[in-house]
Design a protein that fits this description.
Layout: H1 4-20, H2 26-45, H3 54-83
Helix pairs in contact: 1-2, 1-3, 2-3
């Protein structure tokens, strides 16, 4: 249950970055969101007080879900243009 927040944060940050951030700044924005939301997830779950390693894992989970979402949105946009 502790991994729900990083996954949802990654999906939402990917959708918002895809829509509102210029193409050349998307990687930087997703990286910043990954660090911020990963640290927040470690804080919420209490893992931040156990070890400094947990924010790294949570940030990686945020970035992984954001990358998968960006790939899915890009595929969906290409597919919908061909079908229409």
């Amino acid at each position: 249950m502790n991994e729900v927040f990083p996954i949802v944060a990654g999906v939402l940050s990917a959708v918002l970055v895809w829509k509102y951030v210029a193409l050349r700044f998307r990687a930087l924005a997703l990286g910043a969101c990954g660090v911020i939301f990963g640290t927040t997830a470690a804080f919420i779950s209490g893992e931040l007080f156990i070890s400094w390693v947990f924010p790294i894992f949570d940030a990686a989970l945020v970035l992984l879900s954001a990358t998968a979402t960006v790939a899915a949105v890009g595929w969906w946009q290409r597919f919908s243009r061909r079908a229409g």
